[in-house]
């Protein structure tokens, strides 16, 4: 873990002085007695860790720092000085004597040999020479190449910061990076230091370094030096924000109960074959609902059958549960799954467990996982390759897909209104024609009546205008009543919203309570004022519409006036007995016209209430197209990112609008039985793929399909109506056949079927030369994909035995990728390859073993810890392929 001292931003400190330990015991005791703000003793894990150390001036000549284990006993400190032939000074002395250089030690090899003559000191110290640029006490001086080249030291210290004292452009930095053969091509890890000489300790911890260890020992610091890329930092280190914190298995026939905490960075599970490495990963993946994208021949996800059998055989009979804890940005998410029912219960933080679906867990807690040898076979299925593009942006894509579904649902709902509007417009058009015919017929009959007085003729001629006025008044009354009803609904909604205004947050900060109260009261007052004003307006409207109101009285006057005009009209008809037959015809026509007029009013009202579904359809369709473009842009950006992350090994091009399988299947299904040959559809979609903008062409095709539905049987049918369908090979005869199968519902399903974007992968064989990805070897494919996976940021990465997918010569490349990856995402590998574990510098090693030697019927977790723990190093050396060579390689890269 990374450590810094609490009060100074540090959690650990090495206390050194020239040839003297006098100050150290006091600081150690103070740290052990450290208390919190309430005066309570801090838990041991939170106390300052203090390493004893010496600042040595030796006959190399240069200075060096010796650091001992943090738990090195006080009573052995004087013996360390004696081993160096340094005089022990009594602690009660007021003044220390001048520092005398230890001239009998002329090299760092001799210094180590001197200390190692004491068995109790072996492995409990580390030497860090002064490698500051310039000065007579530093190793980095002219003529010191041989001393540097031959020393067994793996780290050094700077008086100040790396940025100031070992710039990447400086000659010394090339030496430290092992790039200068004159200095032995020896790599050296660097530590920043600060002299604290003032009484106020203002410089204490001013220049610090982050060091990762499992136990605070000199060996841990040495191991950190050997893996400086991932264990030493001089700026705050990056750590994954999303990681699997632990897995708990209540019981297992194979492993027994499992309680395993993971590191948030790189975890390696090791052990002999059949000891449970893969089982642990499978339990985690099963609990989190991980389903590989590839599908086996039986249609089930690859590996799912084996995993199901594993759960049934090892967990179900014991009614065991698996619980996995995932941390997302500091918040604990707990997934608990039953092996008997498969039921998943889930909680966030301090919340309660609730039952959720597997899909919900996959969405909220995604992982990127591969089984044995799966990484080198992903090119067999496009879904697996596509996952390399989609997995890191899965949540963004899901959010965009949700927007697309919502827009599609709104479009589907609106299309029903659009169809209703089309029907209403057609009905209105028919009613208007009928009305005009009846108006013309009644006018002709009135004009044919002879022998009537001039007054009677005026009454007859005014009849149509009277009827239209009556219809207008009737519409006004109906609209006024609808307005009254609508405002009543609005008033009820306003009162509801005011009444349901959320209360103050129960955990509101004290400093905000008054302001929050005022803000809520003001909001309530504004809402109540609006509701009161609306209530008054409703009452005024209803009063105006009632019998005594202004509108009610006016409408009643009009009712009486129409009654009088009706009476006059009937009198005229009664006096015209000579025209009885014509008057009866006129009466019938007027009755029919009134019916049509009432029908028109109702149709127009219904159409008005629908709003403008045609414009709404165009808006929603444009929004849907835009959302698909935005989704494509997410994929395009990520595809370019995959190309960049692969270091040029891969090239990913996004073919927009080329994923036509779903719409192809939908169109063929709706055309079944039409007689259109399959070859015509194949040609249609091949032509669509060849278009410069397939999606724009598809929109044109959809529009033409809709025109086929709307076409009346008697309408002229030409290629001008469907130019795109005709251009892409569907003849007018084919279109006529297809038209018999098209319905509004099937067309809408087709229109809302998404067209996918297809990433196309290529593998680079040499500079600017690429081959189709599937043509590359399995090892080449796995290497390129693993580089991408280890370069991506985000969800945990789980791979079971990645070395089985890789060519042996790329293992060291994978090691360097791991160093960078662990700061971006959590990695869990089960592995037999010691180089991946040792030189990849796993923060946590989980060592599995047989319950009984050689018996593969049961496994167990034997050890967990980091490489700086001796027992783990021994286990790696004994059980892993190439374990001893891996540790030697770890050492050899430092040039000794």
From TrEMBL:
InterPro entries the UniProt entry points to: P-loop_NTPase (IPR027417), Rad50/SbcC_AAA (IPR038729), TrlF_ATPase (IPR054787)
Keyword DNA damage listed: yes
Protein name as it appears in the record: TrlF family AAA-like ATPase
Keyword DNA damage: yes
Source species, domain of life: Bacteria
Keyword set, alphabetical order: DNA damage, SOS response
Domain Rad50/SbcC-type AAA: 247-438
Transmembrane segments: none
